[in-house]
C-alpha cells in the first residue's frame, strides 16, 4: 500500500482553452467551440464540452472535427491569453504549497502533505483551490486527491467537469480493482492488447498475476505494472523541473521540398531563441548547447538531426544557420517532401557553470 503520509492533489482545468474563449466572448457560451485554425493541416487544440458531445477531441484533425460537428464554431488559439490565465492559477496553487509540478498550462500536481493556511485536510485544500479559481478566473477546474500522483490524476478525471474526487489510502485497492488496465499510466493500446492475450482486462486481473511472471514477460516494466496494480507510486512531486528542450514547429499548408525550408527555419529559430533567452535570464539561468532540426515527411515519418557545436549559438541567426546546415545530414531522396519543420535547443546546463562544462560538451555529435 502507498504511504498514507503523502497527500497529493491533481488539478486539471476544464476544457481550458475553449473555456477561456467562452468566458471572454459571451456569444460562445453554451455552444460547440473548437479551438483550432481551419484547414486540412490543422489539429484541434481544445474542444468545449458542447463540442465533445459530438466526438470532437484534442489532437484530432480539424477537418474531422468539422465533419463530426458541422455547427462547431472554430476559434484560432491565443496562447498569450491562455498563459496569462495559467499564471493566475499557479499563483493560487502557491498560496497552499511550494511543491507544485506543472504538467502543462492547464494541469499540475501539488503536494499538500504540509499544507498552509491551516486547512484541516487535502480535500479542504482542493476545495479551496477550486473555489479560488472559480472566483478569480471565472473558470472551473476538476481535482483529484489521493496518496500519490498517478491515483490523483485518475481521480481528477472521475467527476469532470467541475468535480472533486477523493481516494483515501484505505480505499486504494478496492478503487483500482475494477478499472480497465488501460487506465494505468504507461499502458497504451499495444500493452493493453498484450495483457489481453494473457486474459488481463482489469487491474484486479493484473494483480492476480505473480510479479515474477510479469517481470519474465515485460522486464522491469513488469514490476512497475505490479506496483501500479497495488496502488504504489513513490514518484515525488517535482517543482521547477529543469527544461530539457525549447522548440517551435510549423505544419505547412502544402508539402515543401528540403531546399524550400530555409525561411521557415529562420522564422522558427527566432521563436525558439526568444524562449531560450527566457531560460537564460534570472537567478537560475540555464543555457543550451545542442541545436535540433525536426522534420516530418509527407507520409508522417518523423526525422530529427542534432548538432552540439564547439561554441553554443549566440543569436537567433546563428541558431537558424546551424539548423539550416543540418538539412545536409537528412540523407533522404532529393524529391522527398515535408509537411512539418521544427527548430529546437537542448542540452541545457547552468549558466554559472557554463565555462566549467565547456570541455564536457566540446566537439560535435549528429543523430
From TrEMBL:
PROSITE patterns the record matches: UMUC
InterPro entries from the UniProt entry: DNA/RNA_pol_sf, DNA_pol_Y-fam_lit_finger_sf, DNA_pol_Y-fam_little_finger, DNA_polymerase-Y, DNApol_IV, IMS_HHH_1, Rev_trsase/Diguanyl_cyclase, UmuC
Residues that, per the record, bind Mg(2+): 12, 106
Example of a GO biological process term: error-prone translesion synthesis
Details of cofactor binding: Binds 2 magnesium ions per subunit.
Enzyme Commission designation: 2.7.7.7
Active site: 107
Keyword DNA damage: yes
Gene3D superfamilies linked to this entry: 3.30.70.270, 3.40.1170.60, 5' to 3' exonuclease, C-terminal subdomain, DNA polymerase, Y-family, little finger domain
Protein purpose: Poorly processive, error-prone DNA polymerase involved in untargeted mutagenesis. Copies undamaged DNA at stalled replication forks, which arise in vivo from mismatched or misaligned primer ends. These misaligned primers can be extended by PolIV. Exhibits no 3'-5' exonuclease (proofreading) activity. May be involved in translesional synthesis, in conjunction with the beta clamp from PolIII.
Family statement: Belongs to the DNA polymerase type-Y family.
Oligomeric form and interacting partners: Monomer.
Protein name: DNA polymerase IV
Organism the protein comes from: Dyella solisilvae
Species lineage: Bacteria, Pseudomonadati, Pseudomonadota, Gammaproteobacteria, Lysobacterales
Amino acid at each position: 500500500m502507498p504511504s498514507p503520509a503523502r497527500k497529493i492533489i491533481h488539478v486539471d482545468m476544464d476544457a481550458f482553452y475553449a473555456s477561456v474563449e467562452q468566458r471572454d466572448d459571451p456569444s460562445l457560451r453554451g455552444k460547440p467551440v473548437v479551438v483550432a485554425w481551419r484547414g486540412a493541416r490543422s489539429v484541434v487544440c481544445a474542444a468545449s464540452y458542447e463540442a465533445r458531445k459530438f466526438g470532437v477531441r484534442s489532437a484530432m484533425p480539424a477537418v474531422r472535427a468539422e465533419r463530426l460537428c458541422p455547427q462547431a464554431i472554430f476559434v484560432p488559439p491565443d496562447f498569450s491569453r491562455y498563459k496569462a490565465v495559467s499564471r493566475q492559477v499557479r499563483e493560487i496553487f502557491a498560496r497552499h504549497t511550494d511543491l507544485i509540478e506543472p504538467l502543462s498550462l492547464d494541469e499540475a500536481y501539488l503536494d499538500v502533505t504540509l499544507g498552509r493556511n491551516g486547512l484541516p485536510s487535502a480535500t479542504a485544500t482542493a476545495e479551496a483551490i477550486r473555489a479560488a479559481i472559480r472566483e478569480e478566473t471565472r473558470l472551473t477546474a476538476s481535482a483529484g486527491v489521493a496518496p500519490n500522483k498517478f491515483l490523483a490524476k485518475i481521480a481528477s478525471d472521475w467527476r469532470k467537469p467541475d468535480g472533486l474526487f477523493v481516494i483515501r489510502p484505505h480505499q486504494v485497492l478496492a478503487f483500482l480493482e475494477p478499472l480497465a488496465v488501460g487506465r494505468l499510466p504507461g499502458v497504451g493500446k499495444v500493452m493493453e492488447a498484450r495483457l489481453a492475450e494473457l486474459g488481463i482486462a482489469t487491474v484486479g486481473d493484473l494483480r492476480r498475476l505473480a510479479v515474477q511472471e510479469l517481470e519474465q514477460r515485460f522486464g522491469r516494466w513488469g514490476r512497475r505494472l505490479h506496483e501500479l496494480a497495488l496502488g504504489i507510486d513513490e514518484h515525488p512531486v517535482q517543482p521547477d523541473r529543469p527544461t530539457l528542450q525549447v522548440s517551435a514547429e510549423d505544419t505547412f499548408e502544402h508539402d515543401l521540398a528540403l531546399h524550400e525550408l530555409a525561411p521557415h527555419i529562420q522564422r522558427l529559430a527566432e521563436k525558439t531563441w526568444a524562449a531560450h533567452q527566457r531560460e537564460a535570464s534570472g537567478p537560475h539561468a540555464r543555457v543550451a548547447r545542442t541545436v535540433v532540426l525536426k522534420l516530418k515527411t509527407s507520409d508522417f515519418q518523423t526525422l530529427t538531426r542534432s548538432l552540439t557545436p564547439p561554441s553554443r549559438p549566440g543569436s537567433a541567426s546563428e541558431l537558424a544557420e546551424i539548423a539550416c546546415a543540418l538539412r545536409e545530414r537528412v540523407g533522404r531522396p532529393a524529391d522527398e517532401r515535408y509537411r512539418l519543420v521544427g527548430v529546437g535547443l537542448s542540452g541545457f546546463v547552468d549558466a554559472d557553470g557554463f565555462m566549467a562544462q565547456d570541455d564536457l560538451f566540446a566537439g560535435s555529435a549528429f543523430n
